[in-house]
Amino acid sequence: MPGEYHSTESHPASLEQETRTIIEETRMVLPGIQAVFGFQLIAAFNNRFQNLKPMERLLHLGAIAIALIMAPASYHRIAEKGIVSRRFVELGSRLLALAMLPLMLGLSMDQFVVSRLILNSLSISIEIAGLAPCLFFALWYFFPWMERRLGRPGK
Predict the structure, then answer these.
(1) Span 51-57, mean pLDDT?
(2) What is the pLDDT of residues 9-21, one digit of tens each?
């Protein structure tokens, strides 16, 4: 594995390498999900959280990302225990990419709650929270999609 990603040439990865990559990518995303849920838990018990309108407090709920990010491990343990298949790699990749959507929305909603509590301005908080998903979408989906479309991944 050392030196594996330092090659100047791109080459197809084996199933084992792709599986390791999915695991590593999941390990990178998981702390973000944990941070969102940690923030949500702390904020819900904060006295100022009660000052938010009921709809603003409901925005704070979101547990879809954790379900999506954990699904490949559960699938592998139950459906494909002891083997690595192309189906697992594709399923894991899709679920990881899909998990970024609710994570993006959760982070954006949390940005709204924090902005609302700090700035006490609904309109500015909406603007700030509205920019967050644009940034996440551009970096997490649009940029990689454009790279792939232009044929530049791995170069």
Answers:
(1) 70
(2) 666 788 888 888 8
Closest CA to 100 of 147, 56, 142: 142
At residue 35, what are phi and psi to the nearest 5 degrees?
A: -65, -45
Q: pLDDT tens-digit profile of 79-92?
A: 888 788 889 889 98
The Cα angle at residue 18 between residues 68 and 29, in degrees rounded to 5: 35
**How many CB atoms within 10 Å of residue 106?**
25
Residue 37 to residue 51: CA distance in whole angstroms:
20
Place of tokens 């941070």: 35
Q: What is the pTM of this model?
A: 0.70
